[in-house]
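User: For documentation purposes, I need each entry recorded in a consistent format: the amino acid sequence on its own, followed directly by the corresponding structure tokens. There are two entries in this batch. Please keep commentary to a minimum and don't merge the entries.

Assistant: Recorded as requested. Entry 1:
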Amino acid sequence: MRSKRALANRIFTGVGLALGAGVLIALVLYVSKTVNLGELLTAMRPAWLVAGILCVPISQSADALTFYFMGRRIGCPVRLPACFDIAFIGEFYYKLGPAGAPVQIKLMLDAGFTGTKTASVFVWKMVANMVVYTVYAIAALLLRGLIYHEGIASAALWGVGILIALYLVVCAFALFCAVRPAPVQRFARRLLTTLSRKIRPLAKEGRIDRLMVRLGDVCDQLNAYRGDKFLLFGLFFGMFIELGALFAIPCCVYYGLGLSGEVFASLLFTQSLVMLLARIVVLPGNVGGAEGSFILFMSTAFGAMMPVGLVLWRMMSFVETMAVGAVWSVGRFAHRSVRGRR
């Protein structure tokens, strides 16, 4: 069973990466045929493009420092280089597909997190990610609608609105799991019991009990650190920096192409909508969804430079992330090998 699942994951990853490579190659060919490269190079501002390239390592470094801070705060003997392994190598595997979460948990254990505390930190990181995404997305809608009076296509608005509503529900569920777990568990058991009358897999003996044990574990993990305000402040502050650096990539690309007229904050918050909508597509790197969402929200800002902006953004946000993770992994392996020979 495990071998079949592993094979399915490899096929899924291979197909996703092949599609991603195909889309990127097609975009590069389109740009090479439709854009005057001489004029493009003349208009470019290299400093902004360098800043865009640095956004990925800054984001992942913020992630690593957040892991280190949380680990030290809860009493785990975590090592800083190993926390960078969690961020850089873990993100590499997240881009590949389903292997991301198991690999990152294994790296957390290797870094010095203990078993139960690993689960607690991992769950809190997921919750913080959803909360911060929601805050950025709501701020983007308010900024575009109330301050800049920029319209959003109705289909995109509905899609983003539904996703934000789902995120709010999940965030509220996580909050209740941390603060009032008993009512949540009672409601979940009633819901699962009702669904088991219609869904056969749930009706199997012991299935609901096993799900309730998992829910109880999640509640315990969320409840473990809800009273540590300094820990939660550090977690959410780090998450804002981590995601903000990723959302800043298109801003740097925009100014790097010599374009003007858009405010940095407007582009940054709009990018949060791009990333939120792209999450619907579960292929590696959100292939297809990322490109479509970027075109949907950023076409007005980039105008005729949209294809170039899209290529540079995907190169920095997707290809660079995998390259950085691969280089870091090789470097750490070489470092361990050298130390092992001494």
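Entry 2:
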Amino acid sequence: MGTWGLDTFKLYLKFRNANRTDLENVGGVNLYETATNAAYLALTTKKQIFQVRLNLRFPELETTDATTGTNTVDGTSTIAVAPTAIQIIDVYDATNNVSLDWMPLKRYLDYTDRYDTGAEGKPNEWTRSGGYIYLHPTPDATYKMYQYFRKRPTLLTGTTATVIGPEWDESILEYATYKLLMWNHEYEKAKFVKEEVIDMIVGILGMYEAEETSRKEHIRPAAGLRDPGRR
């Protein structure tokens, strides 16, 4: 969990913008708040910011709808994607205690029996398109399906901090600063802030990569124990 709440982000962001008060109410919208949440969402939901590929898991954002699940309907091939999901990781059939296999959408579309009521059965494959998960075979009864997914984080309010690590607080602030400058058409200033954002993100990613490398080195077998044919 982060250290700064939205109130702190807004305070620092206002300072970064020469304590401008006009940005606190633009048509009833606080742009300091809007920019902070826009930066937070971009960092946690995008695969790339500027030219930096993130490829971050953020396990804090992985969850399941196991408390409710979704019941399939006999003869209906789809279930709705969980409301806050941005990436489906797994679909689990709780009725039959089995995880379904993911399939490419093209394979699902190639199935000629997906509308054949005589070919219904227990689903064993899934794919996603838009707001729906498509099951195959089409369910022949009611099955309880659980989704394991990466969710969109809740917008920050009040003193609420981010759900990701505190190492990202400054990056979010800097990225929010960049967004405000762009919204105000201050492009030259935005260029310099953009470079700072990139440097901060790359620095954190480098720390993560070093940790992963260190872990691999730690568990690597001693030289005398390695297969001489594999180095």
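Summary note for entry 2:
The helical segments are 6-16, 31-45, 105-110, 169-183, 187-219.
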